[in-house]
Write a structure and sequence with these properties.
Blueprint (H helix, E strand, L loop, with lengths): L7 E6 L7 H14 L4 E6 L6 H4 L8 H10 L11 E5 L2 E6 L5 H4 L4 H14 L2 E6 L5 H9 L2 E6 L4 H16 L7 E5 L10 H8 L5 E2 L4 H10 L3 H4 L3 H13 L15 H7 L1
Parallel strand pairs: 1-5, 1-6, 2-4, 2-5, 6-7, 7-8
Antiparallel strand pairs: 3-4
Length: 270
């Protein structure tokens, strides 16, 4: 990297659990490597982080170890010694896992995470951050540092959509530039009677990108520990690659259209 240049922080966030944040974050990191970037993936789902498990990594160190070292060795602290390398057929990226023990998660401080991310920005082109589903002090601080926030949602039940709208409105209220927040829909063709155009109308903007539902390829990816973008060609892996290409300006923007809100849906939220 050029002297004085900082890497991009790309954060994956959602207001709901079990929406695929970790799978998306892993594949974003993997695809960025395919495009030739130097990448680190940080697991900030502190209590229940699964990045290392998904990738079948036997990591020696975690974020908790990095924080302890940063506190005791302020001058000589080097975060790279706490990273674990994931490699597959010539592609590789680095991972900083979440704390291994639940009690360690409670001791992770926001200033320590900020310091660690700032160090990683000096060494990597992209720092991809997987987060927990909460507007915590730490997540807000990380979003402040981020160049891109992938706000991930699914359209399955009304409460999930309600939380997605609350989350979108909250992020907008933070005063970020519009192009910092990318609303991405996951599992778009899962069985539901809710029309996507209705949800877009509710959110006030179209989805930036739409990812299809692909349960079996996703299950196999987790089972084998190999990111979808490395191991298979299917609708989901294709759209994951397309999403990253849009982030790195290697393809033209997708078009999305919205229609009016159907009466039953509008009555619920108005």
């Amino acid at each position: 990297m050029e002297e004085g240049r900082r890497g991009i922080v790309a954060t994956v966030f959602s207001t709901a659990s079990a929406v695929g944040k970790t799978l998306i974050a892993i594949n974003m990191a993997a695809e960025l490597v395919r495009e030739g970037y130097h990448v680190c993936l940080v697991d900030l789902d502190l209590q229940f982080g699964d990045v290392a498990n998904y990738l079948h990594l036997e990591a020696e160190y975690s974020l908790a170890d990095a924080q302890r070292e940063a506190k005791t060795n302020t001058e000589g602290f080097d975060v790279k010694k706490f990273l674990t390398v994931y490699g597959y057929q010539g592609w590789s990226f680095y991972v900083l896992p979440a704390p291994f023990a639940l009690e360690e998660a409670y001791n992770i401080s926001t200033p320590a995470v900020q310091h660690i991310l700032q160090q990683l920005q000096l060494d990597f082109d992209f720092v991809v951050v997987d987060t927990t589903s909460a507007f915590s002090e730490m997540n807000l601080a990380v979003m402040d540092m981020s160049t891109i926030i992938t706000f991930l949602g699914i359209v399955d039940f009304i409460p999930t959509i309600k939380n997605m709208k609350i989350g979108c409105d909250t992020i907008r209220s933070l005063g970020y530039e519009a192009n910092k927040i990318r609303i991405v829909l996951n599992r778009s063709n899962s069985k539901t009677k809710i029309d996507l155009a209705d949800v877009e109308q509710l959110l006030g903007e179209p989805f930036y990108h739409v990812l299809p539902n692909a349960f079996e390829p996703a299950r196999k990816s987790i089972q084998t520990g190999v990111p979808l973008v490395y191991s298979s060609t299917n609708a989901l892996s294709t759209e994951l690659r397309a999403l990253v290409e849009r982030y790195t300006n290697r393809t033209s923007s997708h078009e999305s259209s919205s229609s009016g809100v159907s009466s039953w849906f509008k009555k619920i939220f108005n």
